Amino acid sequence: MKLLVINGPNLNMLGIREPRHYGTATYQQLVDKVRAYCEQKGHQVSFFQSNHEGALVDAIQQAYFDKVEGIVINPAAYTHTSVAILDAVKAVSIPTVEVHLSKVEQREEFRQVSYIRQACIGTITGQGMDGYLLAVDKLEEYYESRH
Ligand code: DQA
Predict the structure, then answer these.
(1) Domain layout of the chain by residue ranges
(2) Which of 29, 61, 109, 140 is deepest in the core (most CB within 10 A)?
(3) Ligand 1 centroid from CA 20, angstroms
(4) pLDDT confidence tier of residue 136, bands split at 50, 70 and 90
């Protein structure tokens, strides 16, 4: 499969940022881990991170033209605010899994809303970086059930 992993704001600060919630591994370590997993499974994968909402929308739209077959996305804080990112996922109709490193359902009230969730085939929370690997598995299962 051709996969795209998208990370939203402040996830470039992994390793520095609130280790209690997000662990001590860096963004580069996340990329390396997911890349190794995808390669081992024979998937083609690319990565995109931005702190800007519009750039994330652009990346989701570009995925359509690049014929991406599955998206793993951690929209970070934009999960809880962005109708534009939800609409982008709906627009491209690419199977998408929402991932959060932390267990958002056990955190503040304002993290209980996820706009993107309604356009996703699944959501994984609270598994740290392994959540991204579980998301790849979910996309694979979904793809296989349709091909
Ligand atoms: C997060 C959870 C969000 O609430 C937060 O704004 C983030 C990271 C997570 O991975 O747990 O930036 O998406």
Answers:
(1) 2-140
(2) 140
(3) 12
(4) very high
Q: pLDDT tens, 17-37?
A: 999 999 999 999 999 999 999
Mutate to test the pocket of ligand 1, among 50, 100, 110, 123 (most ligand atoms within 8 A of CB): 100
* CA–CA dist 91, 89 (Å, integer): 5
Q: Which atom of ligand 1 is nearest to the CA of 125?
A: 11
DSSP string, the chain: -EEEEEE-TTGGGTTTS-HHHH-S--HHHHHHHHHHHHHHTT-EEEEEE-S-HHHHHHHHHHHHHTT--EEEEE-GGGGGT-HHHHHHHHHHT--EEEEESS-GGGS-GGGS--SGGGG-SEEEESSTTHHHHHHHHHHHHHHHHH-
Q: What is the rounded distance in angstroms from the CA atom of residue 66 to the CA atom of residue 4?
A: 10
Kindly report the pTM of this predicted structure: 0.98
Cα angle 98, 51, 60 (rounded to 5 degrees) comes to 50
